[in-house]
Structures are given as structure tokens and as C-alpha cells.
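Blackboard transcription, Thursday session:
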Amino acid sequence: QVTLRESGPALVKPTQTLTLTCTFSGFSLSTSGMCVSWIRQPPGKALEWLALIDWDDDKYYSTSLKTRLTISKDTSKNQVVLTMTNMDPVDTATYYCARTGEVGATYFDYWGQGTLVTVSS
Amino acid sequence: DIQMTQSPSTLSASVGDRVTITCRASQSISSWLAWYQQKPGKAPKLLIYKASSLESGVPSRFSGSGSGTEFTLTISSLQPDDFATYYCQQYNSYSLTFGGGTKVEIK
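(Written on the board underneath:)
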């Protein structure tokens, strides 16, 4: 059974760095084809993909946010970490992690429940 | 980046109606398109991948079609559980993008 769970602060101040952790089970990020992405959704708005890390430790980032994002993995702990620097109120959103389970096909078959991050002083 | 445009943004329909949602890509994405359903306060759920492949466990009233730049999601007979927001997502490249969403409301 595949599960993913996001964790991190519910509130961050402007200019701070956000660190989110995705803890997963039911698959291994060392298996060929497996990837984990971060996706966010501001309240009442559409989904926005942020970053992806694959089984081979290749990393991909949103063009518009790449200077602020870092994604990493700890295969032994079954965790993927996202850091986002210089947080702003417009970054207030529910942040999801999601799995890609098919080689060369980056759609998301399993999602975490999401964690709401509010950026406010 | 490839832009994904969904239409309509809101759709009002009744139980039993046939519903069609369109997603257009700003450039060809072959068949690298997925559809998701999202209900308020919940994570998105995968419905369709590779434009027309039905995810396991998804009711057969959902179907997808299209290739290149134009795609459709069809619900053959709308059920009460189907009132939700639907998103398309392209995965032709590693700069993944979603459409703006289509909210299916009760008429």
C-alpha cells in the first residue's frame, strides 16, 4: 500500500526558508522509474508543480521558481525534502507530495493529503 | 513552458448528463496527458493517464481522448459523486504543467 505524508511548519514569516518533508511507504525511491514531486495549490486556485526527484537522483524544477527551490532525498529514510527560500505571502498554499510510478511517464498516481503553509508576519 | 488551457472553467450539469471538458496545450504533447479529480479539502485523484488510459478502480463512465494539442475528458452519465474540480496535466517534458481547472457544479 503506497502512502505519502507531508510535514512541516504551518506558519512561516516572510523572507524565511520553508522546509517540507515527504515521508512515504509502499515503494522505494531507489527503484527504477520512481519519482517524487512537490506540487502546491494556493487557496481557491489551480495546482502548480514545483519540483521532482527521481530514482537516479536527477532533479527538475519549475522554471519560474527554480532559483528558490532545492529538492533532495534520503532513500534509507524514505523521505524527500523540499526547501523554498525567501518565502512571501503569495506562497501561501497547500503543499502536496506525489509519486510517479512509471518510467518516463511523470503523472501522479499517489498523493499525500497535503499540508497548508501560511506565510505571514 | 507548455501552457495548458481548460474550458469551460465552470460547468453546471444535472445527474445523468453527459459532460465534456476540454484541455488544450500550447504545443504538441503527443498523448502525454493526465486527468485528475479533486474534491474540496482533498488531494487530487488520478483518473486518466496517457490521454485515454483509465486508472485502475476509476469508473468506466470516465473516458479521455485526444492527442497533439487537444484533449477531452468525458463523463458519460454524471453521478452525484462526480461533482468536483477536474484538472489536466501534461508530462511531455520535465517542466510539468497543469490546466486551470474545471469545476463541475450541480445545475
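Lecturer's comment: Chain B touches chain A at residues 1, 32, 34, 36, 38, 42-46, 49-50, 55, 87, 89, 91, 94-101 (CB under 8 Å).
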